[in-house]
Write a structure and sequence with these properties.
Number of strands: 7
CATH architecture of the largest domain: Alpha-Beta Complex
Number of helices: 8
Largest sheet: 7 strands, mixed
CATH class of the largest domain: Alpha Beta
CATH topology of the largest domain: Spore Coat Polysaccharide Biosynthesis Protein SpsA, Chain A
CATH superfamily of the largest domain: Spore Coat Polysaccharide Biosynthesis Protein SpsA, Chain A
Order of helices and strands: EEEHEEHEHHEHHHH
Distance between the termini: 46 Å
Structural class: alpha+beta
């Protein structure tokens, strides 16, 4: 399981082995807790680097929904907060419990959600860390990630704000991500099937339809 690092007796932070903290991370993050006991977790902007140092791919944006209304749908948006670049009040972890060791690859989101359902979440509006992946990372295994993500959503289905519609949107985003991952590996048939499933689950998200259309064109061209 991922280690929680003790910063002070009152705060914890998490760092994966291949990621990088930037100099402003600690000072900028901790000040958003000052005088705000209702805040249980803070997070900031991150830059996601491609393997082999080929440069930044994108910068994660702040979550559109903060406070105590989080549900799995928000954790599968592109702008979701990433717990590995967050700071947490130690008492929050003591209250909700640590990582759920029965989960794989989504244990950080699970802990983040349990805290966010009880406390507010603060955004640190500055770049605080680099998030790096490699070909051997768990997040690059589409099948394993899909299984873990589905289990995560089912675990929290029925929690406050996590009703039927939120579940369908979350599942649609999971299958869209799975389709994109398979497409990047050239597995176009499987990618297209996953994409169609995301559209069936939630056809009102334009990005689901756009990804499906792109994969269909690639699949048709490949099979000519």
């Amino acid at each position: 399981m991922r280690p929680l690092l003790t910063l002070t007796p009152s705060f914890l932070a998490l760092l994966d082995a291949d990621d990088v903290w930037l100099p402003p991370r600690l000072m900028e993050s901790l000040k958003y807790f000052e005088g705000r006991p209702e805040v249980g977790l803070s997070y900031g902007y991150i830059s996601r680097n491609r393997p082999r140092g080929r440069g930044d791919r994108y910068v994660c944006e702040p979550a559109k929904t903060c406070g105590r209304t989080h549900c799995p749908v928000h954790l599968y948006a592109r702008d979701r907060p990433v717990l590995s670049f967050g700071h947490v009040r130690r008492k929050c972890v003591d209250e909700v419990g640590g990582f759920d060791e029965s989960l794989r690859a989504t244990e950080d989101r699970d802990l983040w959600l349990r805290i966010a359902l009880r406390y507010e979440v603060a955004l640190v509006p500055t770049l605080i860390a680099y998030y790096r992946t490699s070909p051997s990372s768990m997040s690059t295994d589409p099948g394993r990630m899909l299984k873990a993500q589905l289990r995560f959503v089912e675990k929290h289905y029925g929690a406050p704000g996590c009703g039927r519609l939120a579940r369908q949107i979350a599942l649609a985003r999971i299958y869209k991500q799975h389709a994109e991952a398979l497409g990047s590996r050239g597995q176009l048939g499987a990618a297209l099937r996953s994409s169609l499933r995301s559209i069936a689950l939630y056809p009102f998200d334009v990005s689901n339809v756009r990804i499906g259309g792109s994969l269909l064109l690639r699949y048709a061209g490949f099979n000519r």
